[in-house]
Amino acid sequence: MKATEVPEIAGAYLFEPTPYADERGFFCRTFDADVVRSVGIDPNAFVQDSLSRSVQGVLRGLHLRSGAGEAKLVRCSYGSIFDVVVDLRPDSPTYLGRAFFELSGETQTTLYIPAGCAHGFQALTKTADTSYRIDRPHDPAEDVTIAFDDPELAIPWPLPATSMSKRDQEAPSLAEVLKHREK
C-alpha cells in the first residue's frame, strides 16, 4: 500500500493498495496502520465505521461538521463514485481548494479527508457501496451542508442528480455557510 498526497487539499491523502489477483479474483489490504501512521495520521483515532449504498445518479453532500470537524477515510468498496473534497479550513494553505476523484471497488483506493473539509459524492454505477471510517462519533447537531450545485464551487458532477436527501436539496450556498461560520 502506498500513500500519495493530494496537492489540492493540504493534509489529504490517497491510500492505494497493492492487489494480488489470480483466477479467483483479488485480495488487497484496505487499511494499514503503519502506512497511515507514516503520513502523520493516528490510526487509532477512528471510532466509527459506516457504509452507504447508493444507486446510479444519487448525490450525497456536500457535508462537513461544525466544531472540531471530522476526519474521514472514504472508500468505494463496490461500484464507483465521483468523490469531491473542498477545503474549508481558513488557515489552510489550500483554503477553498477542490479535488475530484473516481473511487471504485476495482481499485479499493481510500481517500483521507482532514477535519474541516466538505465532502460529497455521486454514484456512477447501478450500485455503489461507500465505506467511511470516522474519527468522532456522529452528532447530528453539528451537521453542515453546502449546496452541491453552488456556482462558486462549480463542481463538474458527471451525471444528473437523480436523487438526494431533502437536507441536500435545501442546502445553503457556500457563501451563506462561510458567513455563518464567521459569527
From TrEMBL:
Pfam families for this protein: dTDP_sugar_isom
Keyword field: Isomerase
Family matches, as InterPro entries: RmlC-like, RmlC-like_jellyroll, RmlC_Cupin_sf
Residue segments, region Disordered: 160-183
Superkingdom of origin: Bacteria
Family statement: Belongs to the dTDP-4-dehydrorhamnose 3,5-epimerase family.
Name this polypeptide is given: dTDP-4-dehydrorhamnose 3,5-epimerase
Naturally occurring in which organism (per UniProt): Streptomyces vastus
